[in-house]
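help with these tokens:
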Amino acid sequence: SFHDIGTEMIITKAGRRMFPTYKSSISGLDPNAKYILLMDIVPMDDNRYKYHNSEWVVSGKAEPLMPGRLYIHPDSPATGTQWMKQSVTFHKLKLTNNAMDQQGHIILNSMHKYQPRLHIVQANDVYSLRWNSFSTFAFPETSFIAVTAYQNEKITQLKIDNNPFAKGLIT
């Protein structure tokens, strides 16, 4: 439902959790091997957007790219069995517009389109990450525009209806 309307994600200086939360089912891993799951969020294009006449339209060239960050799932490393037994959620990941962030949040520019990407790496610890190959997955349904305030009232209503923590949006 969110994707059909055009998902918007709030970004704040302090960091804000994504809603809807990124959630994925994983299969095909070696049950006994250890894996680290990571997420990054990359620009979808070189444009800046604005919400005009009830739709998102290009309004210029993108701002310079913020420093790329990887968010390591807090259960990492874990065995293939552990990852495959239930859906994996990235509910603790936070988005910020603070370029000086020291908390490890993902830094984004407001009014830009982004695509979350899930990376699965067979590795026993974070120190061996760079020596191993990544499998990367991106799902178009998870793309969003970063905003500091919701622009589309339909998104605001969907978030109120579906997020038990969004009751502060009710006016």
Summary: The first strand starts at residue 8 and ends at 10.
